[in-house]
Each structure stands twice: as C-alpha cells, then as structure tokens.
Write a structure and sequence with these properties.
The protein is an alpha/beta fold. The chain contains ten helices and 14 strands. It folds into two domains: 160 residues, Rossmann fold (3-Layer(aba) Sandwich); 100 residues, Hypothetical Protein, Haloacid Dehalogenase-like Hydrolase, Chain: A, domain 2 (2-Layer Sandwich), CATH 3.30.1240.10. The chain is globular, with a radius of gyration of 18 Å.
Length: 278
C-alpha cells in the first residue's frame, strides 16, 4: 500500500478512470461514502470521464451511477451488458445461449449450490434459498422464483451466478474451468459469488467498447479493482490500481496499490490526480 501518485503516471495524460464497485469503492454497508461521491464529481469537473465496471446487474448498478453523476455507459454483468445510465438503453449485450446455460446448470445442480440466472435484467431463481436472499439483499433487488430452469429457461441468460461458501466454490471453479474454460468466462466477483458468462466477455473487452464510443484511448485510462474478475480491466487500462486487500492474483498484476475501501483509497488517489492536474 502506497501513498501519493505513482512516479510513472502523467496526470495530464489521463482521459478517463474506470472503477469496480464492491470492495473497491462500495463497502459492505452498500452505501457510497461522501468522499468517493465528491472525488468522482471532481474528476468529471476536471474533464476526466468516469466509468463503472461491475459484475452487478444494470438495475442494481444504475442507482449508484446516478448518485455518482456518471453519464458514461456502465459496464455490468462482468462486461456482458453495457448500458446508458441516463436513458436506460442497452448498448451491448452478450448473453449465454440457452443450451450452454442449461449445460452449466446441469453440471452445478448435483452439487447443491444455489444458482441465479438473469433475463431482461431480472434476478431469477428456481426456489427461494438463504443464499438467494443474501444475493438479492446485496443487489438491493427482488428475486423472481420461477421453478425448474429446465422448463422455464427459453431465452438467453446474461450470466449465471453460483452462490456458496468460498472454499467449496473454489473447488467448483476449478472443475468448471476444466470443463468449460475454453468457451466460457468463469471468475469470482466476491469470495461467495462465482460468475459464468459468454466467451470473450470481460470487463476489459467492455472497456474497449466503451472507450471507442467515447473516443478515448484505453491507454489513457486508470482502472481500479479488487477481484479476480478485474484482471482484464486492469490489463486493458493504461494503468491498473488495486486496493490493498485485493485478491493476491490481482495485486501481482497491478501497477499500484491504494488503501482499502474502508479508508477511501480510490477517492484519495482521485483527489491527488485532480490536484496534480490543477
């Protein structure tokens, strides 16, 4: 963990910042701090585009984007969906086709994990479970109980989330990677959430899409993250920053570290960035 701006970063060259939400700028209270709201506002006032890249649903992300004053397209569902927070329009959608989604569901079901699927930006479950309720509370959204996915799922799903305890999910992740790793995106967003999306989906790929729309070179962006699902985001951006309590694998590839979300580390970095440009 380091203070100050990195010596190799030219503040004047930064055109955009992009940040993960949970455990990066959003603490377990699920409330944005006044400091990060102020820091994002200052970034935008300085002429730097501000973006969000999250595993969350659009419906769960949009209120935070609006609270932060973000008008750039938001990257949701690990990059499977990009949408305009102001109009609600979907700009990019890369869902999992029904046969592949059912293949994943059939592989996971015998092991007893709770699963979510997402259609039309709705959180859908087979039956109510404590894990499903935990996820719905985390997303601040209602879950829709539909019964057997084999009968109900007739349209592509934006992603699949498997909910469970960290260690059993680690084992499941290894098994799913062995079976599906060549043709699906598989990564943890939080220790208790294992996410599955279409091949080629990632926050990094979605960042390239958004940057092209905005006319910004990804090399002129600074990215912030904490999880295994942020690898591609930090690698695609010109400069990658991890919070100090990030996943070890992310810390290894990050160009810089900042204090954790409880200490508003990202906000502190952004304050220094804006001050340095002034």
């Amino acid at each position: 963990m380091r203070n100050g701006l990195p010596p190799g970063l030219d503040p004047a060259a930064v055109r955009a910042i992009v940040t993960d939400m949970d455990r990066t700028i959003l603490p377990s209270s699920l409330e944005l701090s006044p400091r990060i709201v102020s820091a994002i506002a200052a970034v935008r006032a300085a002429g730097i585009e501000a973006m969000i890249a999250t595993g969350r649903m659009f419906a769960s992300t949009r209120p935070y984007a609006l609270e932060l004053g973000i008008t750039a397209p938001v990257i949701c569902y690990q990059g499977a969906l990009v949408a305009d927070p102001t109009t609600g329009d979907w700009l990019l959608h890369r869902p999992i086709d029904v046969p592949t989604a059912l293949e994943v569901i059939h592989a996971v079901r015998p092991r007893g994990f709770h699963m979510n699927v997402y259609v039309d930006d709705r959180l859908v479950v087979e039956k109510p479970t404590p894990e499903g309720r935990t996820y719905a509370e985390h997303a601040r959204l209602e879950m829709h109980v539909v019964g057997d996915f084999d009968r109900w799922l007739t349209r592509p799903t934006t992603k699949i989330v498997i909910v469970g305890e960290p260690e059993p999910l680690d084992e499941l992740e290894r098994d799913l990677r062995d079976r599906f790793g060549d043709h699906l995106f598989i990564a943890k967003s939080l220790p208790i959430f294992l996410e599955v999306a279409s091949p080629g989906v990632s926050k990094g790929a979605a960042l390239e899409f958004v940057c092209e729309r905005l006319g910004v070179d990804p090399a002129a962006t600074v990215a912030f993250g904490d999880g295994a699902n942020d690898h591609e985001l930090l690698e695609t951006a010109g400069f990658g920053v991890a919070v100090a309590d990030a996943e070890p694998s992310l810390l290894r590839i990050a160009d810089w570290t900042v204090p954790p979300v409880a200490e508003d580390g990202v906000a502190g970095f952004l304050d220094l960035l804006v001050h340095s440009r002034a």
